[in-house]
Amino acid sequence: MKAAGKGPAVLRLNNIKRVMTQLRTTRITSRQDLALALDLSKNTVSLIIDDLLAQGLIHELGPVSVAAAGRPKIEIELRAGQLKSAGIMVERQAIHWRVCDYFSRVVAEQT
To answer: Which of 63, 65, 92, 110 has CB atoms 3.0–4.6 Å from 72's, for a disulfide?
Structure first.
């Protein structure tokens, strides 16, 4: 019997979290730069990015013009509005709530 918390599924989830965290930090990057920054294979990053594109969580901004030879890098960016979090604070006299996007920008709030 396999121990819980091991195996390729857990590794994949961990890699997805790492990619999302890096995208949140850098805001705009490329698959190649993600692979270098996270020390992952280009294939692993491409598979994750393809899944995130299919889910609508990121979008491609287009190729970066570089004077170097070879395939140009295609910049990608998180669609921060697609991922939201909510917080609620309950006090004796009031209830406060706030919704933020993935970059912690306030989308809505009310007291």
So the answer is: 63
Count of domains observed in the chain: 2
Query: Which residue, among 34, 32, 8, 12, has the nearest Cα to 21 in the 3D structure?
Result: 34
Listed range (25-29, 67-71, 73-77) with the worst mean pLDDT: 67-71
φ/ψ of residue 71, rounded to 5:
-70, 130
**pLDDT of 2 over the 70 cut:** no
The CATH number of residue 12's host domain is: 1.10.10.10
The torsion angles phi and psi of 64, rounded to 5 degrees, stand at -90, 130
**Each residue of 55-82: b (16+ CB within 10 Å) or e?**
eebbeeeeeeeeeeeeeebebbebebee
Q: How is residue 50 annotated by DSSP?
A: H
| Structural domain harbouring 107 | 81-111
**Residue among 32, 40, 81 at smallest CA distance from 57:** 81
3-state secondary structure of 64: coil
